[in-house]
Design a protein that fits this description.
Largest sheet: 6 strands, parallel
CATH architecture: 3-Layer(aba) Sandwich
Number of helices: 7
Structural class: alpha/beta
Strand order of the largest sheet: 3-2-1-4-5-6
Strand content: 5-15%
Order of helices and strands: EHEHEHEHEHEHH
Number of strands: 6
Length: 182
């Protein structure tokens, strides 16, 4: 995967469609803030490079990257095969999930199954999915994410405990589901 996608350094992974509410710009702003402090991180993004609700959004995203000279820091892969996405996720430093809203985050579920650390926005569904096992930032503050990323890299942010493995989570869900009908 490293050769296929030209990913040669440790990286954070953001696996969302490029829809405005998925909040990519906030993450890019955080990368810029860190760069201004002399902290250089790599961010690899996968997902459809268009937003049918906001047709100009992807151009705004690309322009932001170019205008802020972040082309070497941020890699936007577009849609990639599912197996590649999971492989990139499994080998990243941490998964970033910055969404402002969604019904349920499959990215978080994938990352949990792969036992990957997750930096997520404080949006309620993320807290429901991650509970005390996520690292959180304000979805409206790139500074909040930049601070979290810096702490994650320098070790000052305490890493959460691992997630239950997939089989344990399925068994727990089954027990809770059965208990509903008792």
């Amino acid at each position: 995967m490293k050769i296929k996608y030209d990913v040669n350094e440790p990286y954070f992974f953001l696996a969302n469609q490029f829809y405005k509410h998925k909040n990519h710009i906030l993450v890019f702003e955080a990368v810029k803030l860190l760069r201004e402090k002399g902290i250089f991180i790599k961010l690899v993004c996968s997902g459809k490079l268009e937003d049918y609700r906001n047709p100009d959004y992807i151009e705004q995203v690309k322009t932001y990257v170019i205008d802020n000279n972040l082309q070497n820091d941020i890699k936007m892969l577009g849609i990639i095969p599912r197996e590649d996405q999971l492989c990139l996720m499994k080998n990243c430093l941490a998964v970033i999930q910055p969404s402002k809203f969604e019904g349920w985050s499959t990215v978080i579920e994938d990352a949990k199954t792969l036992q990957m650390p997750i930096l997520a926005s404080t949006f309620g569904v993320h807290k429901e999915q991650l509970e005390d096992k996520g690292l959180y930032f304000d979805e409206d503050s790139s500074q909040s994410l930049a601070t979290l990323l810096e702490g994650y890299l320098n070790g000052s942010v305490k890493r959460p405990l691992p997630f239950d493995n997939y089989e344990q989570r399925v068994a727990k869900f089954a027990r809770l589901f059965i208990d509903l009908y008792k």
